[in-house]
Specification:
heterodimer; A: 305 residues; mainly alpha; 15 helices; B: 270 residues; 14 helices; globular
Chain lengths: 305, 270
Amino acid sequence: MTDPTVDARFLAALLDGRLSQDDRDEVLRRVAASPESFEALVEAVAIVRDVEGYTPRTSPVTPATTSPRRRWRSKSAVRWLSVAGAVAAAAVLLLIVQRSRRPSEGSAQRLAALLVSQGAVAPAGFDATPWAARRGSGGTLSTRARAVRLGARAVDLELAVHAQSTTAASIASAMAHELDAVPAASPVTTLYRNITRLAASDARATRVQLTSAEGSTARLVGTDAFEFGGWLQSARIAAAGRDRNFFASDVSGDAIRGARDRQLIDSTTHAALTQLRASAAVGDGADWGALAARLTDILRALAGG
Amino acid sequence: MPPPRLYGPQEMAERRELEALFLANLGTIGRIVTSVSRRHALSAEDAADFSSWVNLKLVEQDYAPLAKFRGESSLSTYLAVVIAMLFRDWRVQHWGRWRPSAAALRHGRLAVRLETLVYRDGFPLGQAGDLLRTTGETTLSDRELATLLTHLPMRSRRRPIEVATAASADAPSPIEADELVSSEESVRQRMAAKAAITTALRHLPVEESLMVRMRFLEGLSVADIARALQLEQKPLYRRLERALSRMRSQLETVGVSREQVRELLDEWVA
């Protein structure tokens, strides 16, 4: 720590009570001498209180006996733990989103992250839609069907961007085209057109546009159907990759139950999906081809075929 | 545009892990950004701009801020610190070194907005009031807003403002000459007092100096200070009193009168 500004990692460790007494004293000395670090600490403690709603400590903190630098020497172990934590966080976030039914922020991103973190590889042609392309821009498509289509395409787009696939531009273009028929959608359409333009050349800018576009689209066309469309497309990809974990996860259980509760699917489809999920989660002896085909049928039917 | 970078298999795998980490934590990032935006009473436009800027900074240079994380704390705390630092950069880039005063933060969102409009953006109080009422941020009258403004420190304006020449030539000045002189004297006294306080703070031990700055200059609660400094909350009240007492003694030794000391510190504690 030769720089007078304290590194974010040390300030965070201080706030979480994970510094040794010596390291804590050194960090405080530097915070006192650096207006930038002092401001960051003051700001961060207010944010943490706001975001976590923590309970103030009533007993002295027991400081760590070794410095964080020494305790966390293994970079790969940390990476592994970070990713494992992220996967758990994604599952929890999805659970919360599914249950609270507030406007979704990044459901397709989280579904894609779930698939990617479990090693799923999108099969060739994953972005081929099971519905007739010409009806996408028609004004006769129901609102729900359009939301299901866009939710499915949002997952495709996430995976394409993640894989730096050239198909990202065409998927974004198709989504913009789909949104042309939705009133007041032009700001969102612009985001997708930006993605079409940027996807091949600027991954960072694409990611920023994508984050804004997905949340706006869900709010515009209807969160429930948008998210269920995303889950169906994710499930098709998981089935193609024989990904038991995807079907075993609470995310899948909640998605199927939620779709029934919100009357997106009837009781027969719900029963079929529940049975398919159970056989996929067990894995052994599952007919993955038949599962993918059945999921495709359901997606096609909900998307206005 | 720089040439596209080529990644090896190991680099690509790490990059994907970091991307997955970023995506999985979008919700946390969003909550932190919302908290910062609310605390600083950003307009909807500024809040959206800040949000996009944070996302951009987090993914820049192959997710460099996330790559630096080694697990010394929870990821959410680390992100809170990183985004707090990013807010400072964003603020300096957009507004110069402006930040809401601790007094405004203590008085709440309306005070921060009022201070920002009057001192940062250079709106006359009447126009600032009109703006706040039009946007539904308050129902207070100009007189009530003026009262609120008197609780906030006087600050120089960050941006030049256009003054309508006809209005400035004909309209009587709202401030009398005596008031102006008195006001300038008051500013001089306050600056001298501030310098004395800064000196007195330097004479305190590091921990107590931080405590006092956090409590009385930044308006943090004692619970927040306990968290920031990793101290037990209950004895903090007594330690703060002792620190103030030491500051009183120090201020008196540099020639600040007992009455002035009382006035200064009472103003803080109020």
